Amino acid sequence: MLNSTQKLIPTLIGLSVAIVALAAFLFSYLDHPFKLLSIAIVLLSVFIFYIALRLKKFNTYSNLSTESSSSSDEFATAFEYASIGMGLVSLEGRFIKVNKSLCDLLGYSSEEFTKLTFQEITHPDDLERDLGYVSKLVNDAIETYQIEKRYFTKKGDIIWINLSGSKVKNPDGSFKHFIAQIENITPRKDAFQKIEEQSQRIQNIIDGTNAGTWEWNVQTGETIFNQKWAELIGYTLEELSPISINTWMNFTHPDDLFISEQKLTECFEKQSEYYTCECRMQHKDGHWIWVLDRGKVMTWTEDGKPLMMFGTHTDITNLKEAQHELSKSKAFLDTVLNSVDVGIVVCDHTGRLTLFNQAATDMHGIPFNPLESKNWTSYYDLLKTDGITPLQLDEIPLFMALKDGQISNSELIIQHASGNKIFVNCTGNQILDQNNNLLGAVIAMTDITNLKLATKNAEDIAVKFKGIFDSTFQFIGFLSPEGTLLEANQTAVNFAGLHADDLIGKKFWDCYWWTISKETQETLKANIESAAKGEFIQYEVEVLGGMGPTTILFNLKPLFDASGEVIAIIPEGRPIQEIVDSRKALLQKNEELERFASVASHDLKEPLRMISSFLSLLEQNYKGKFDDKADTYIHFSVDAAKRMTNLINDLLNYAKIGSEDAPIELIKTNELINEILPLFNTDLEIQNRKIEIEKLPDIVGKTTPIKTLFQNLIGNAVKYQKPGSNTLIKVSGKENISNWEFCVEDNGIGIAPQHYEEIFQMFHRLHTKEEFAGTGMGLATCNKIVKQHGGEIWVKSEEGVGSKFFFTIKKQYLN
Ligand code: ADP
């Protein structure tokens, strides 16, 4: 029946078209009454066409139903074996029919499914969304829908599915059931989630590294920075927008842009995979920060040009500053290492040499070689202190330090490339890290060649010195500043008739020699204290010798260090008993002589005065009464008697010096000289010469002898003048630490150097009595006076120019 209806439809449509065509013909060619007929025919044809259409619609439904029934087997097969899960679901949601794939997917059998609703196996979080679609589908708001949602499997696992839902209606248009197509998308979802997690992790890492990121389309210049990128230079992204590659260029140091460009080119030309550049960027505050810019071209255009490039910015300012500080301190360390004259050698924990400073290299005279320990001995010529035997590896201080942890004051000899032997003292240590892990060892070598030579010399000298020290005629010792006897020479020990052990280490004043009396010991003690303060002491003292009391001339000489501190005292003594005895005898003789001279000159004075006065009377009364010869003889006799008188006076004066009982007193020198100057007035006026007296220091001494002293010197200065010259005599003086020093200067005839000493002896004259009158006693008297005042007298002179007579008066004369 359906087939006949199907065939009828085109017939009916064709009929209605034919009728319309007929009606159109009638309408145009026939008269009016037929026109109405034609309209009726058209209406008929429209009716037939309607019938045809209704038939067609009916036929469609019929067809469907027919096709359905004819292909139901195919559908059932396709449904059952479809690779995706399929299910027919009732309006309430119950599974009416499910295919095998769906059973496999969720783990239920098809029977079990028929007892389930989709609501029961849908994840609660997805259910509402799903039901929303279902309701729209049922209400014809949508024909079909698709969602991703979660199902629970029978085991309770959650799986992700992609659900396509549609509905099937009954032929009458009423709802029949849903068709659900279910695709397992769990693997895709998992993968997607993994990607999500991964990108989140990457994002976290980027955030964690505090790095700014950039994405750059090299072809268009379009650039994306993250917020951190902007923050690195103190901005927000908003402040920097609009952002392009120029944003980066504007903030980057021009010098670094150039380098960056070079590195980018390398990257674009695929010479390097990564772009890495350290650049300075200007911060919003104005200062420059250092940025490590790293990136990589990730995609390329088809014609091989770089397209997308991605990268990061990291603030490495601190690192750069630390690097700068590090390089500064390394430079400092290198300079220090290479400027010290101590050789430094370092090895790592394996024994490989890692450092030789300049001094160490110089000590060997060969270039540094980073050798392993087993090769040290063959390369570096290291010898034992005998200078011959080569050092074994385990005797090398660096190796010992590495193995044992520490080595100190180990001595060895380096055979320098030049052949010279260098004596070194080594001190070394292990190098450990914070956790006490061995990093290596270091050794410091001090060149002690000179010290060794000096020590050897000192030893040689000491041996020689000891020989001299012990064999000298004097007693010599060595005292600490506190007076302990540290050393005494053999002479001194022998003199005491003891052994050195009986004396060394004792206080000097408690040693045998000085025990002669308490007073001698006390004096010595006091003198040692003075010497310890830097004073040179000398005195004669009677001490005990092996043979009994002996007088010695004894010195205490302080020994100073570079800073002027007294570090020791050297006592020195020499027996002078014989000298003392002969001096005593001499003094006695002198006294006797002086007494004799005094008595003789005193006793001679009277007859001489008589001879002189009678000769003068003879000359006065009888001159011209005899012949000329008699006059001459009388004159010579008078003259000789005068000179004899002078000589006896001078001798008497000389003899008296020291024997007078004059007190030691303060002498106002200028006043004293003023008293004696009138004595020379006549001579000075006659000779038209001047005498200039400077301000002189006052002194302490015996007035009369000091007066004689000045009188003689000024008298000589007046006497020994060049005739006819305008000369000047000057008396000057000054105060020294231990004495007063005076000078009587003239511009007279002067004295030849060879006579400087002898003129101070008695009766020594350089001129005849005809040239200059005198007795030759003046300077001898001066010498005696000065000596009695603990001083010295000397002359500096030039013949024809003048003389300077100097003398000193000792201050200690006070004591
Ligand atoms: P005299 O009685 O001869 O002056 P002195 O002992 O005073 O004896 O001097 C010794 C000698 O030293 C003198 O004879 C003289 O030759 C020399 N003499 C002393 N003073 C001077 C002087 N101021 N200038 C040159 N010669 C001098």
Helix-strand blueprint:
Blueprint: H1 2-29, H2 32-81, E1 85-89, E2 95-98, H3 100-106, H4 110-114, H5 118-121, H6 124-138, E3 144-152, E4 158-169, E5 175-184, H7 186-209, E6 212-217, E7 223-225, H8 227-232, H9 237-240, H10 245-251, H11 254-268, E8 274-282, E9 288-300, E10 306-315, H12 317-339, E11 343-348, E12 353-356, H13 358-364, H14 376-379, E13 382-383, H15 397-404, E14 406-415, E15 421-432, E16 438-447, H16 449-471, E17 475-479, E18 485-488, H17 490-496, H18 518-532, E19 537-545, E20 548-560, E21 566-575, H19 577-622, H20 628-656, E22 665-667, H21 669-676, H22 681-687, E23 690-693, E24 699-701, H23 703-719, E25 728-735, E26 739-746, H24 778-788, E27 793-798, E28 802-810
Parallel strand pairs: 23-25
Antiparallel strand pairs: 1-2, 1-5, 3-4, 4-5, 6-7, 6-10, 8-9, 9-10, 11-12, 11-16, 13-14, 14-15, 15-16, 17-18, 17-21, 19-20, 20-21, 22-24, 25-26, 26-28, 27-28
Adenosine-5'-diphosphate binds at residues 716-717, 720, 746, 748-749, 751, 759, 764-767, 774-780, 803.
Catalytic activity: ATP + protein L-histidine = ADP + protein N-phospho-L-histidine
InterPro entries: HATPase_C_sf, HATPase_dom, His_kinase_dom, HisK_dim/P_dom, HisK_dim/P_sf, PAC, PAS, PAS-assoc_C
Domain Histidine kinase: 599-813
Q: Please state roughly what percent of the residues sit in beta strands, choosing from under 5%, 5-15%, 15-25%, 25-35%, 35-45% or over 45%.
A: 25-35%
Weakly predicted, low-confidence segments: 1-5, 57-70
Distinct small-molecule ligands in the complex: adenosine-5'-diphosphate
Tally the beta strands: 28
Adjacency order of strands in the biggest sheet: 12-11-16-15-14-13
The amount of helix comes to 40-55%
Shape: rod-shaped
In whole angstroms, how far apart are the ends? 175 Å
- Helix and strand composition category: alpha+beta
Provide a count of the helices.
Answer: 24
Round the mean pLDDT to the nearest integer and report it.
Answer: 87
The main pleated sheet reads as: 6 strands, antiparallel
Radius of gyration: 69 Å
